[in-house]
Each structure stands twice: as C-alpha cells, then as structure tokens.
Amino acid sequence: MAGLLTPAAATDALAEALRAGLDPEGCPQRTALAVPGGELLLMPAASGSYAGVKIAGVAPGNPARGLPRITGSYLLLDGPTLRPLALLDAAALTTLRTPAVSALALRHLAPAGRPLRLVLFGSGPQAYGHLEAALSVRELAEVVVVARDPAGGERLAAHARGLGLPARTGTPKAVADADLVICCTSAREPLFDGRLVGPGATVVAVGSHEPTARETDTALVRRAAVYVESRAAALREAGDLLVPEAEGAIGPGHITGTLADLVAGRMPAGGAQSCPQLFKSVGMAWEDLAVAVALWEAAGV
After folding, report:
1. Segment (H or E) for 146
2. Strand 50-58 with 38-47, pairing
3. What's the average model confidence in pLDDT over 189-210?
4. Which of 232, 190, 231, 192 is nearest to 208 (CA)?
5. C-alpha to C-alpha distances, 233 to 18, 72, 199, 226, 290, nearest whole angstrom
6. What pLDDT, on a 0 to 100 scale, did the predictor assign at position 253?
7. Residues 40, 53: contact at Cβ < 8 Å?
8. According to the model, what pLDDT value does residue 273 have?
9. φ and ψ of 200, to 5 deg
10. Which of 30, 39, 141, 253 has the largest CB neighbor count within 10 A?
11. CA–CA separation, 276 and 182 (whole Å)
12. pLDDT at 288 > cutoff 60
C-alpha cells in the first residue's frame, strides 16, 4: 500500500465519504470473538458502489515474538454484484486509516496559524502513522515521544528528527506544554494527568475499543469538549468515556459532536478554546471501506 495513498489523500477519502451522506451512526457493529491468541474482529460495511469486510486479529503477545499486534485481511467487493475486487493486508490498512481518522479530526479541532508542540504516546506503527498524519494537517514545532519502551521511543524521536523536526523523548508531564497530545498505545489505564492539559490543547486517543480500557483520565474528559466518530459506537466501546460515566463524573450527553458534524460545518471551527478538545476514536468499518476504496481507485486496476 505504500505510495498508493498519502496520509492527506486517505484523510480526504474519509471526509468525502461523510460529505456524500454516509451516516456512521448506521454502521454495522464490530463483532468480537475471544480466541486463544487474543481477539478476532469482524467489521463489514457497504456504501455506494462498494462493500467490504475486515477480518482482523488482535494478538497482544505478538510483539514479544517479533510479530505485528494486528493481523488479518480486508476483502473489497463490488457493491452491486458482490464480486471480490481486492484482498488487502488488514494491518497495513489499519495503520493508514486510523491516523487518517485522527487527521480529519485535527483538521477541525487543532489550533491553526502557528507551529504546534506535539506529545506523542507510543512507539509502534500507529505512532509513526500518527506523526505523519499530524504533519499532513499542521506544522509542528517540536515532538516529544513518551513510550513504555525507551529504545522504541528514541527510535521514533530519531525518525522525527530525520523529518526535520526537533524531537526528543520525555515523560507524561510534557502534556502541560503541549498543543497536541496523541495517544496510540495499548494502555488500559490513563497515561497522564488530565489536569495538566492546557485549555487550548487538542487530545486524540485511538488506542482502545474496549469499554474498560482507556488512555485518558476522568479529569480530562470532564473538562473537555468531546468529539467521536459515532455516538452509538462511542457509547458501546469507548472506555475513555464509559469509565468516567460509570463513575458518575459525566453523562451520555457529554459528547459535544461527531466527525460528521465537524465535516458538515455544524460545529464551530477549532471548537471552544476555553477548554481542551478531545477526540476519542474506536475505529469503525466505514473508515476501512472508505480508505480501501481510495486505495483501489488509486491503483487504477
């Protein structure tokens, strides 16, 4: 997939799908099956002239074996005939589409007009993808990598320096000076103290689709304007929101808006800068389909 679609083009594909009338609230739910190696996910979607399904494995033990945590395949189909068109690598597709979803949110929520300081949690494929995605929508003044694996964090910081960015590793306290905070980890507990995040900062959390796992804490969620891909999906799967709700800190109405709202211009540009902007992503099947279609059409097969 490398070279077929830039991060910006993948982001454009998602925006165009929403402008064309796709309603994420009606997207089929993710089916999850516990298996010995971890979790098997089934994610079907159909829109316009295409349909598709992702069968993905999430194997938490794989990185220790030198294998990808996400495995699987994506089958793209012709919509009217359901004739198979392409079989794509699900891990590569996810590594492209998840940062593109985040970039679409950042286009509307992140501060504009000046270089931004980014704190990036994680050092895996999603962290690299999110660095590129952030660069595709905003100029960056500095990158601080916070990683559980020091060597992995330094490799990502070196990669950022290779892109011409001032970059270093740091600690979770770096969020106090951040304009952007991007979390792409497998953490099950909050990564940082949400009280440290400035009122004009934008936070993106993409690491989990489990209702009991979260990367951000209740303090941040309670004070933030919260945006999601779909209210229904977030209220099923977003532990970053469901845990604070279970604590009685917020209610279901705490969600400010959705990606569709942002793309359609139903929300003020840049959000309410008197508080942090939080975008919580769980990953949805319509996003895989939109990016798979863009890849197929870019290939010109």
Report:
1. strand 140-146
2. antiparallel
3. 95
4. 190
5. 16, 22, 27, 14, 18
6. 82
7. no
8. 66
9. -95, 5
10. 30
11. 13
12. yes
Amino acid at 46: A
With beta carbons less than 8 A apart as the criterion, state whether 18 and 2 touch. Answer: no
38 burial type by CB count under 10 A (0-12 exposed, 13-18 middle, 19+ buried): middle
Indicate the pairing of strand 70-78 with strand 84-89: antiparallel
Other beta carbons within 10 angstroms of residue 273's beta carbon come to 16
| Residue positions counted in the chain | 301
The amino acid present at 219, given as its one-letter code, is A
Element containing residue 16 per DSSP (H, E): helix 7-19
Q: Is 225 exposed, middle or buried (0-12, 13-18, 19+ CB in 10 A)?
A: buried
pLDDT of 93 strictly over 80: yes
Residue 33 to residue 56: CA distance in whole angstroms = 11
Residue whose token pair is 């593109």? 100
Q: How far apart are CA 197 and CA 294, in angstroms?
A: 36
Residue 1's pLDDT band, with cuts at 50, 70 and 90, is low
In one-letter notation, the amino acid at residue 41 is L
Predicted pLDDT of residue 261? 95
